[in-house]
Amino acid sequence: MDIYLVGGAVRDTLLNYPVVERDWVVVGAQPDELLRQGYLQVGKDFPVFLHPQTKDEYALARTERKQGHGYTGFAVDCDPSITLEEDLLRRDLTINAMAMHTDGNIIDPYGGQDDLKHRVLRHVSDAYAEDPLRVLRTARFAARYAHLQFTVAPETINLMADIVKQGELAHLPAERVWVELEKALGERNPEVFIKVLRDCGALEKLLPEVEALFGVPQSAEHHPEVDTGLHILMAIQQAVALSADTDVRFAVLLHDLGKGTTPQTEWPRHIAHEERGGKLVEQVCNRLRAPRRHTELARTTCQYHTLCHRALELRGKTVLTLLNATDALRRPDRFEAFLLACEADARGRLGLEDRDYPQANYLRQALAAAQDVSAKQFKESGLTGKPMGDAIAAERIRVLEQLRPS
């Protein structure tokens, strides 16, 4: 049997890009041969094995035949007669359809090296259309390698659009959509993921609430870029500069959803968009089955980001209301994530990308001042229950009033 390094490890090696994991394909072998050598079989739909020492994944060379909808409806053939070229043909992009022999020789039957050279993401064959998950994966690769000037080939965008038109995205489990979305949010340019999904019509199917923001105007006085969708893309870019956490970037993606439901007669103003947006955030998170951490931060950011922007003009009582509403006293780490999301929103505006955001530091100081007021000092006065709670709140308001900018 012959063993080859395949897929992402070969691609990233040729790009001089960090190799995160190594996958291998085994040609000309039966499952029993690997089991006798100590490999552990883990695959259910087709034979995949873990190496006894490295724990890398080794899969038997295979072909696939579409039998149903979605990304799991395949009949798999792992006969030992299947060639490496046949195995590579079923892969998504040419840059992922290369193999490297143990002697270092590159096997590249579908032009992956040429597409690496020209920075193109191109599908290997029409079999690409059999797996709708590849629409999201291709958009994610575009986000990962955008800083290297990679773009999606026009013919691949067209094929992705055909998959969307055929309704195949509807058969993707919510969990798989979420996995791809979160991975994309963790890339260097997650805004490119959104752009590519828009280009092929997939954003309207997967995140119609975000798609609805494009073409919606905002006041040019506060948003020189005007278009709300463009603002979202710019804000995500700023979120990347501020935080590597996907919950912060997800919150930025959803923070202005309410503006997509503003009646056109009210444009470019968006009164009460925070309240309307909160319901849409819940809708998106429920549909994607987003983790609680992401959901809570997205909800908080949507509802309170404009109040955060006004922090320097708020009275002490309102600042305390904001701290309580965001659960800052009990969960300061999440409050810090909230501040970062709000800062990304403020900086995600044309020509204002480098503007200072003093509101964040002011609210950090406000939180520290409020935390310094504890129950201990009131217990000595014999206060308990609600009277003590009221006394603590009053003292916090007093110190927050003293902290206000003059």
Structure description:
It is a single chain. With 406 residues, this protein is an alpha+beta fold. The protein folds into 4 domains: 1-112, Beta Polymerase, domain 2 (2-Layer Sandwich); 132-199, Hydrophobic Seed Protein, CATH 1.10.110; 207-367; 371-403. The chain contains 19 helices and 11 strands. It has helices at residues 8-14, 31-36, 84-89, 112-117, 133-145, 154-165, 174-185, 190-199, 202-206, 208-211, 228-242, 246-254, 273-288, 292-309, 316-325, 332-347, 358-372, 376-379, 385-403, and strands spanning 2-6, 23-27, 40-41, 48-50, 57-60, 63-66, 74-77, 99-101, 106-107, 120-121, 151-152. The longest helix has 19 residues, at 385-403.
Q: What is the helix fraction of residues, given as a range?
A: 40-55%
Strand count, sense and barrel status of the largest sheet are: 7 strands, mixed
Radius of gyration: 26 Å
Strand order of the largest sheet: 3-4-5-2-1-8-9
In brief, what are we looking at here?
With 406 residues, the chain is an alpha+beta fold. The chain has helices spanning 8-14, 31-36, 84-89, 112-117, 133-145, 154-165, 174-185, 190-199, 202-206, 208-211, 228-242, 246-254, 273-288, 292-309, 316-325, 332-347, 358-372, 376-379, 385-403; strands at residues 2-6, 23-27, 40-41, 48-50, 57-60, 63-66, 74-77, 99-101, 106-107, 120-121, 151-152.
How are the SSEs ordered, and which strands pair?
Blueprint (H helix, E strand, L loop, with lengths): L1 E5 L1 H7 L8 E5 L3 H6 L3 E2 L6 E3 L6 E4 L2 E4 L7 E4 L6 H6 L9 E3 L4 E2 L4 H6 L2 E2 L11 H13 L5 E2 L1 H12 L8 H12 L4 H10 L2 H5 L1 H4 L16 H15 L3 H9 L18 H16 L3 H18 L6 H10 L6 H16 L10 H15 L3 H4 L5 H19 L3
Parallel strand pairs: 2-5, 10-11
Antiparallel strand pairs: 1-2, 1-8, 3-4, 4-5, 6-7, 8-9
Helix pairs in contact: 5-7, 5-8, 8-11, 11-12, 11-16, 12-14, 12-16, 13-14, 14-16, 15-19, 16-17, 17-19
